[in-house]
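Escalated from tier 1: zinc ion holo job.
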Amino acid sequence: MKIEGVRIIDAHQDVFGDIKIQDGKIVEITEKKVSEDEFEKAQILFPGLIDPHVHFREPGFEYKEDIESGSRAALSHGVTGFFDMPNTNPPTFTREILKEKKQIAEKTSFANYAFYFGAGPDNQSEIEKVDQVPGTKLYLNTTTGNLRMDDENRWCEIFRIGKKVSLHAEGDTFERAVKNWLEEGSPCELHLCHASLRSEVELVRKVKQEKSLANKITMEVCPHHLFMTHKDREKHGAFCCMKPELATEDDLAAMWEGVLDGTIDMFATDHAPHTKEEKESEQTFYGIPGVETLFHLLFTEFLERGYNLKKFSAMTSHNIYEKFRIKDQKGLIKSGYDADLVLVDPNWSGAISADNFYSKCRWTPFAGRAIRGEIQKVYLAGEEVFDGENILSGQEGQALKF
Ligand code: NCD
Ligand code: ZN
Ligand code: ZN
Ligand code: ZN
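Tier 2 regenerated the structure:
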């Protein structure tokens, strides 16, 4: 199969031409000369996006979302891979439970998948033995579920296992985690989930300046912390209630600075669906959906700000595969790489609407926001799985390899 006459953008190139796909892989790229005008108006082919932070809620909370609905939602908006979080029920604290999640995904996932392992009160030996996961998720602050860990000695025990640790931490807890990690001699890689504060970006920037540590620390930022502040919380109430909470204008500016100078490595949605009824109830439910707004929010903003789309692709795809050491050849449009691709018409403009969400979560605080770029086709392993309106495939997601 061939995709012809498109602008091919990934982390390393922005060229015009054709690509040839065979047996699910990109086998050839032929560059062609075009006028500047044609180049600007051409359809864009990106590597499929990967979302390194979603809560697809299965098992345990399937009424909010499940792997099937969540992965369909992902695919329909250009996200061909995801890392699911361990605060399901039961939490992903044992290899047995991890296996069960993978078996569900094998049967029902429309997109490629990986599952985080959770740090529990007494699962040290399971963490030591587990493999084929993006990392161990350690919760240092309160959020959905009962996974919070306060004992700093336990944090250090988990660091000493030597496997990548991803932190749900904010401000002070993140600072203490980094301090402990340094005192232990940085025995593992550290990843900060959903950055939201200037102090976090500044701390990571400082750590990355140390040559020996530069490749051991990474961080992600979510669209809601790039586009919204505490003022939106006041406006939208519970529908803008999430952890970490929305911060100040200055924190938001710090996120964009971190994106621009490379301190922030990647985008993630923290897709955390709750029902409308839950959000409207007396109880507090932290989290908002995101996997169906990731592409449009960021693609539009990169165009508006005149930022380089190679960086957009790096932060939604290549960097994630690279920083999490995924063994599959994914995230670039390159000969030998898997043909997980998204075709976009950049000339289209419209607005965000939850009416066309595949997620069970049919609301978003971003509703009505002006966006650009129509997703016209999504390919998974060379097969057209979304045609711009409908999902065409069966459940063909594959386990990502680490
Ligand atoms: C997440 C959830 O609901 O699972 N909620 C949230 O507000 N982000 C959990 C989390 O990422 O901390
Ligand atoms: Zn690279
Ligand atoms: Zn979190
Ligand atoms: Zn989360």
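The chain is about 30% helix and 25% strand.
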